[in-house]
Amino acid sequence: MDTEYNRKIILEDGSEYYGYAFGDLSQRVCEIVFNTSMVGYQEIISDPSYTYQAVVMTYPLIGNYGMAEDDYETRIPTIGGLIVREYNDLPSNFRSADTLSEVMKKYKIPGIYGVDTRKLTRSVRDLGSRKVLITDVTVSSEEGVKLLKEESIPTDAVSRVSCNAIWEARVPDEKYHVAAIDCGMKQNIVRSLNKRGCGVTVVPWNTAAETIEALHPDGIFISNGPGNPTDVPEVVETVKKLRGKKPIFGICLGHQIISLAYGAKTYKLKFGHRGGNHPVRNLETNKIEITSQNHSYAVDTDSLLGTELSVTHVNLLDSTVEGVKCDKDKVFSVQYHPESAPGPQDSAYLFDRFITMMEEGKNHAEKNRY
Q1: Of 183, 198, 252, 326, which residue is the catalytic one?
Q2: Measured distance CA(225)–CA(365) in Å, rounded
Q3: Separation of first and last alpha carbons in the chain
Q4: What is the pTM of this model?
Q5: Active site (annotated) includes residue 210
Q6: Catalytic: which of 255, 273, 278, 337?
Q7: Cα(307)–Cα(194) distance, integer angstroms
Q8: Digits of tens for pLDDT over the chain (370 positions)?
């Protein structure tokens, strides 16, 4: 072992990977996952969906373009940790305001570089996502395994990252009003709706259906977020009460919540989908979309039988469900991220579909007034 190493990670089977510290020096137990994106580490560390997770970046060089003020997905990152092959602390980018390490220190996010990320990623692929300890090099494997057995991953991720009070992102000459249920929503979703003339009222994850209806929205959005969808039965019940009343659009965790609200089931994937290169077939157009993804859970295909949902999109890598809809209730959702930035733009049309549904709803309501 190289005596210069000052950090390491320990997995549940006692295996160790040595490296060097960047970011915060705290010790942390997380769920280990990997991301195959080649760019976008700022959006990854500030995506609330990575709460309690340590992300292995498969792209070898991280930190080289720094951190820009306008590119955060949330202002207070909650990612568990970051594991990279090579870290660059001297970014070259005129937009950079801080280094990645400075931001990680500010928000108490531990990092480790110099790790053999190819070997580590293969381990996650073969054995699945599991607990990992990011710690000091002096901690023994036996101590680490004991700590991993004793400490569990919390299940309060959504309540931790959701907003605490209703807030608004309105636009001039507003055409539509969207009520967005914040389960850990990425800010580029709000920006994507604003860009299309939608004023957005963001409500906490546990907001009652009656409160949302009282906002008189033209449409309702269910956001992405961290963790197991069955950990937030409150949101599932809210969707049950709201479906059929206004058009509803869900992304990622929102897709899983909508599926649960219609009686389907979800399950945990072996190592999840994370990255900007997943091919998805749109069953309605037969076109292939390259998508950006970030999730550990999927909707069980067989459980959709007998529900009012039909499958609209399928992942070509593992045949998992990537989209569902209920035409009667004007409800639809996708497992991937059409708002991804940076990332593929193949699926931005989904926001336009939501706009069309809200326009049709407004026109129908206007006709019924006379």
Answers
A1: 252
A2: 32
A3: 80
A4: 0.95
A5: no
A6: 337
A7: 33
A8: 456 899 999 999 999 999 999 999 999 999 999 999 999 999 999 999 999 999 999 999 999 999 999 999 999 999 999 999 999 999 999 999 999 999 999 999 999 999 999 999 999 999 999 999 999 999 999 999 999 999 999 999 999 999 999 999 999 999 999 999 999 999 999 999 999 999 999 999 999 999 999 999 999 999 999 999 999 999 999 999 999 999 999 999 999 999 999 999 999 999 999 998 899 999 999 999 999 999 999 999 999 999 999 999 999 999 999 999 999 999 999 999 999 877 778 888 999 999 999 999 887 766 666 5
- Joined together, the tokens standing for residue 134 give 């990011």
CA atoms within 13 A on the CB side of 356: 8
Contacts (Cβ under 8 Å, ≥6 apart) of 215: 177, 179, 201, 203
Known active-site residue 16? no
β-pairing verdict for 266-282 and 248-251: unpaired
Choice among 73, 289, 322, 339 that is catalytic: 339
H, E, C per residue of the chain = CCCCCCEEEEECCCCEEEEEEEEECCCEEEEEEEECCCCCHHHHHCCHHHECEEEEECCCEECCCCEEHHHCCCCCCCECEEEECEECCCCCCCCEEECHHHHHHHCCCEEEECCCHHHHHHHHHHHCCCEEEEEECCCCHHHHHHHHHHCCCCCCHHHHHCCCCCEEECCCCCCEEEEEEECCCCHHHHHHHHHCCEEEEEEECCCCHHHHHCCCCCEEEECCCCCCHHHCHHHHHHHHHHCCCCCEEEECHHHHHHHHHCCCCEEEEEEEEEEEEEEEEECCCCCEEEEEEEEEEEECCHHHCCCCCEEEEEECCCCCEEEEEECCCCEEEECCCCCCCCCCCCCCHHHHHHHHHHHHHHHHHHHHCC
Among 285, 310, 291, 290, smallest CA distance to 299 is for 310
364 belongs to the catalytic site? no
